[in-house]
Design a protein that fits this description.
binds zinc ion, zinc, P_dom, serine-type endopeptidase activity, Immunoglobulin-like, Jelly Rolls, binds tryptophan, signal, aminopeptidase activity, elongated
């Protein structure tokens, strides 16, 4: 599912995520107070879809990590630290500032660190946080508890990074250690913050067990302001939600709430039993646990409801985009060379069109230059030297006679106002000849009654340019003795002159224009026959231009 980004124009519409048909439409303002900031007129950017396929990919990685480490990702084991490394490396590659925060004091002895990731930008004094515990119990790989929340917030973080929208508030993500031992990692993190840092955190959203196979749609502290956006999302897709009674004070949001921070979150449920009423509104099986593999070895990648998982990610994205993403995208452009390559002989000039496109926001001025790769003796000229993104410029690369043959990757730099991007152009100097004139300089005696064949191999491509031009040079005291023919590569014979005449003239230099329908490449043969007795001579050379 992919939502279309739509820019809404008014403050009222800033409360709406406008989406394409068949995807959820949030057509009402989220209930609850605490949305004063959104009274400021700005345009809202629709939240993107968070790919459940990609979340699934992260879950598979957690599964393999557990399998390689005794079937568990408990906080004190190598399966936990390998999980931290996996998440950390994805975040770093996407542009996050990550920190491993030691889970001391207060955690189990040997517990691995919490992982904190900050998305650069937004108001640092207004931090919106989302978190999930990354550790499992010893009994199993912990794919629903809590690979699900960990993978989901990771993919949401990567989606935010991919979009690079303008941020109003600062967004931070946390992966907690040692939750299964009593919410210890998150408590250590919160206690380790100065009161100033703590007061900057305006909201913490927790995601613990968001893919339960017989799950429900539970929201923590459902009637508070912190829950408003999550609620609004589920309402928009016509899914009813309930207070997360089962999970109250049993996950990391409690650590934040105890420190006076507004919290909410999403869960699909653990070992408690689904009621008949819940099965009626949500589907699934009444009288069975939401997650029958809770804290056991069967909490594997088979123990996941994609629907619950998918919706939790889209709910978080909705909350983040509603609260922390500004109305305008980062302005950006792209640049390309078309054609992307060209061939010239040394001394020749290659031209290509440097095109630019506005990829987000409004157009911007782009200054063009060659950053690297020009061969020696060559000069590059842009016409014009700067364009508004969306327009193009002609790049001419003039080589000189001294430019060495070779293949050069010429990097064209486009320096814009908000970003710089490069295009490359591959310039080949030399290579396939563009020459279409050839000569055979070998001398052939022209004796009585003898035919000589003087061949030329043409490397010119395409069709011969008709008429081909033939020049024959030689000596013969009676050129009237000579019949001269040209044989084309296809074998066709063209008579340039017949023998015969009433008086003798010297051969000398003769030019012929010969209409042909021939390919240019291959063997062209000049065939000279001395058809009469007495006078003889010499074929000096002949040339052909095809
Ligand atoms: N998953 C946490 C644990 O390991 C806390 C928890 C228990 C929970 N029941 C829940 C979280 C229900 C969400 C919903 O015990
Ligand atoms: Zn859990």
């Amino acid at each position: 599912m992919r939502r279309t980004a739509v820019l809404a124009a008014t403050a009222a519409m800033a409360l709406m995520g406008l989406v394409a048909a068949a995807t959820p439409v949030i057509a009402q303002a989220p209930p609850g107070a605490g949305h004063g900031a959104k009274a400021v007129a700005r345009t809202a950017l629709a939240p993107p879809d968070v790919s459940v396929t990609n979340i699934r990919g992260h879950l598979s990685q957690f599964q393999s990590i557990a399998s390689q480490n005794g079937g568990t990702r408990r906080s004190t084991g190598a399966g936990y630290t390998a999980s931290v490394s996996y998440v950390e490396q994805k975040l770093q590659a996407a542009g996050y500032t990550t920190r491993r925060v030691a889970c001391t004091p207060g955690c189990s002895s040997g517990a691995g660190p919490n992982l904190i990731a900050d998305w650069p930008g937004g108001d640092e004094n207004q931090v919106i946080m989302a978190g999930a515990h990354l550790d499992s119990v010893s009994a199993g790989p912990g794919i629903n508890d809590n690979g699900s929340g960990s993978a989901m917030i990771l993919e949401t973080a990567l989606t935010l990074a991919a979009q690079r929208p303008t941020m109003t508030k600062h967004v931070r993500f946390g992966w907690w250690s040692d939750e299964e031992q009593g919410l210890l990692g998150s408590r250590a993190y919160v206690s380790g913050l100065s009161s100033t840092e703590r007061s900057k955190i305006k909201q913490y959203l927790n995601f613990d067990m968001v893919g339960s196979t017989n799950g429900g749609y539970f929201i923590n502290n459902i009637s508070t302001a912190a829950a408003a956006d999550l609620r609004a999302y589920y309402t928009s897709i016509n899914v009813q939600t309930e207070e997360n009674v089962e999970g109250a004070n049993r996950s990391d949001d409690a650590s934040f709430r105890n420190a006076g921070i507004a919290t909410s979150g999403v869960a699909a449920g653990a070992s408690a039993t689904k009621t008949t009423a819940q099965a009626q509104k949500w589907g699934g099986t009444a009288g069975r646990a939401y997650d029958s593999c809770y804290h056991s070895s069967c909490d594997t990648t088979s123990n996941i409801s994609d629907t619950h998982l998918d919706r939790s990610g889209d709910a978080l994205a909705y909350a983040i985009w509603t609260q922390a993403v500004g109305g305008t995208t980062q302005r950006d452009f792209s640049i390309n060379a078309s054609p992307g390559s060209g061939t010239v002989q040394a001394g020749g000039t290659a031209t290509t069109t440097i095109g630019t496109t506005t990829t987000s926001g409004t157009a911007q001025r782009v200054n063009l230059s060659v950053a690297s790769g020009l061969p020696s003796g060559a000069t590059a000229t842009f016409n014009p030297t700067s364009v508004n993104s969306g327009s193009s410029s002609t790049l001419s690369i003039a080589t000189s006679a001294t430019t060495p043959d070779g293949t050069y990757t010429v990097t064209v730099a486009g320096a814009g106002e908000t970003a710089s991007h490069n295009a490359t152009y591959t310039l080949s100097v030399g290579g396939t000849s563009t020459n279409r004139s050839f000569t055979n300089d070998t001398d052939y005696p022209l004796n009585d009654y003898v035919t000589v064949n003087s061949a030329i191999t043409s490397t010119a491509s395409g069709s011969a340019a008709s008429p081909v031009q033939v020049t024959v040079k030689g000596t013969h005291t009676c050129s009237e003795d000579l019949r001269i023919r040209l044989l084309g590569p296809s074998g066709t014979s063209y008579t340039l002159k017949n023998a015969g005449g009433t008086s003798c003239t010297n051969l000398g230099t003769r030019n012929y224009s010969v209409p042909v329908t021939q390919q240019a490449s291959g063997t062209w043969t000049l065939q000279v026959t001395d058809m009469y007795s007495q006078d003889t001579g010499l074929l000096d050379s002949w040339s052909i231009t095809v």
